[in-house]
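Task 17 of the worksheet. Students: predict the tertiary structure of the chain below and write it out as structure tokens. Keep your answer in the requested format; marks are given for formatting as well as content.
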Amino acid sequence: MAALVREFEADPAKDLLVIHDELDLTLGTLGVLSRGIMGSGNNSKGDLMRKLLAFSVFLALALFSANAFADDYAFGASMFNGGNNLTINGTAYDNTDSGWIDSTGFHAGENQNYISGNEGGGQYSNYFSFNLSSLTGTVTSASFEVYTFTVSTTGIYDIYATTLTPTEVNSGNTFHSMAFFNGLTSGVEIGTVNLTAGESGSNVTFSLNDAGLTWLTANEGDQIVMGGAFDYTPPPTVPEPGSLLLLASGMAGFAGIFRQKPRLLRRRNRLPRS
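Model answer:
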């Protein structure tokens, strides 16, 4: 949903209303389609069976689509959080900017949401900018602390060294650059953390590896951009077995009813023996 990619409004209740309206629209569309398939008024047995079969196919396709395009992301519905920081040699450096870039290279200006992963059919990588102008000397320890906002599913969040500058990916600007998107994750991996849905709405902290320490040392006194990507296992592209079983049971029940009804009628109309 678009509400998860854009930045939160000042009043979070407005965002909840947007999500609620989008769900209502989806359910309403499903109802209209089902009524269109089933129709109204009197139906012959054959017509009703054909419509039931068509609706079953429609329902199976809906279940397929729901699984095939499941949303798997971290930092959903996020906004700029000044508390996100790199702690380097014991000193905290708060991020000065954050944002996302989708897989087409697009970023919407005035949006500091830092969602990462798959949402609404789009794939997003995120980034954080830091000013290390006061950093000097060799970096011997470093960690990254970030607020999760919403994590939809279990996955691995990786951070990467980049050669991008804060000016290039200024979240206040709208830009379209595949070079920027690729640049967020094409560098060396400098840290990783496992995230779960249970960690939504919390701060997580994880250490940078040796490659990360080397990167920070090489950029002492500079401004840097750190890229990130949430890795997930795509859901199966078939309906869940439970859903298929429920669908098959319902169809078998309808078939049983229609098989029994003619038999009952034949018995009632049978002439008595002389």
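Marker's comment: The mean pLDDT is 79. The chain has six helices and twelve strands.
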